[in-house]
Amino acid sequence: RRHQKVLEEAPAPGMTPERRAAMGTAAVNAARAVNYVGAGTVEFIASPDGDFYFMEMNTRLQVEHPVTESITGTDLVEWQLRVAYGEPLPLQQEQLQIHGHALEARLYAEDADRGFLPSTGTLRHLRLPAANAHVRVDAGVEQGDAITPYYDPMIAKLIVWDVDRDAALRRMQQALAECEVVGVTTNAAFLRRLVMTDSFAGAKLDTALIERERAALAPPDASAEPALWALAAIAAISTESAATADARDPYSPWQARDGWRLGSQAARRLTLEHAGALAVVDATAQGEVWSIQHNGHVVLAHGGLTGEQLTLQVDGQLHRARVVRDGGELYLFGAHGVRRFTLHDPVSEADQGVVDAGSLVAPMPGRIVATLVAAGTAVSRGTPLLVLEAMKMEHTLQAPADGTVQGYRVKAGDQVGDGAVLVDFEASQGEPG
């Protein structure tokens, strides 16, 4: 995406021994031509007819070096240090053998569903797959660290190895499903959909793959999944009970949030948002039996939350998810990746809506480069109002409707966070605010 790799693998599908040898010879000749000593990476562009063309040489190891290490049993980082120290290469080319297949995924703090916009914040929860003979995790951050706009937003590299490509694909799907990140948006779900596309699974690879598989890469529509909303509602109520319990007297009846009423249980109404879909869900509990009403559907569920593990039997199917709650955000980590829900409070949000009516907010964290019109200026829909720089790219924010710029809350040079109010804007009468 944007001419940057998001998945790497070795050996390359369709790579013949002859072409690999020819590329290796060309790379070595390029290094010798400039008397280069040390680790280096030569990149080529390959065409379907078997020809390849020099693109560039980087005088370092590249991000994808672990896939080479996985299939050859080498440690290229150690090798480059030994060579820099004046020692010879530990092995010669003819001593290297390829075993199995390796894949690498770059886990980034970015929102793939919003054009891969960078995401910044504190890693309030971070759990990555456990390392073993088939899975390697290279990470430079840990829980509690901040992802800032000043550095590359990579969280970790997930590297998997198995005896062949199909087995490695299954390993990667599982590894991505086990990634749990709260505090920033990641591309884990997108990467999992990517490795499951027909093009990638069938090794029909080219630089237009993501564009060609756009339909398959779109996030699934969860609005028609009653069981999913049931899980979210039960998780929300259960985590709320745990968060508000009084440890001084856990048996006090005033700590109970089970909806007890004389004669029957009271329904709890929740307003939840997931993937742009907003739903009102009514939940009633009787012990471990739940009745969930959502969008005209009634779902019966049996089970509950034990620690962070939610286990529910819904319509004859068993659902399991690890639950992490971060304020008004609820995360369900399951076999198919993560589902994030936002818990809305209609009363408090109605007041906030009055405060921020007609405002223009930052779609991502970044730095204000320039404000483009003066306060008090009447503008038409689409008029550029200010320029925001994020991750070395400039984004022009436009007027959302015909109206008047009341004023700016920022100036050039200011650093702003995702969702920060930038412009007070009053839409013309009849235009949406």
Structural commentary:
Helix 4 packs antiparallel against helix 5 (188-195). The protein contains ten helices and 28 strands. The longest helix has 19 residues, at 226-244. The protein has helices at residues 17-33, 65-72, 76-84, 165-177, 188-195, 198-201, 209-212, 214-217, 226-244, 346-355, and strands at residues 7-10, 41-46, 52-58, 101-108, 110-111, 117-118, 121-122, 125-127, 135-139, 146-147, 154-162, 180-182, 268-274, 277-286, 289-294, 297-306, 309-314, 317-326, 329-334, 337-344, 359-361, 366-371, 378-379, 384-390, 393-398, 403-408, 415-416, 421-427. It starts with 6 loop residues before the first strand and ends in a 6-residue tail after the last strand. The model is unreliable at 352-357 (pLDDT under 50). With 433 residues, the chain is α+β, with helices and mostly antiparallel strands. A hairpin with a 2-residue loop joins strand 19 (329-334) and strand 20 (337-344). It is 22% helix and 36% strand.
Instruction: Count every helix, treating DSSP H or I runs of 4 or more residues as helices.
Output: 10
Helix content: 10-25%
- Anisotropy-based shape: globular
What is the average of the pLDDT values? Answer: 87
**Percent of residues in beta strands?**
35-45%
Structural class based on helices, strands and sheet pairing: alpha+beta
Largest sheet: 8 strands, antiparallel, barrel
Would you report the number of β strands?
28
Q: How far do the termini sit from each other? A: 34 Å
Uncertain ranges: 352-357
For the CA atoms, what is the radius of gyration? 26 Å
- Placed side by side, the strands forming the largest sheet appear as 13-14-15-16-17-18-19-20
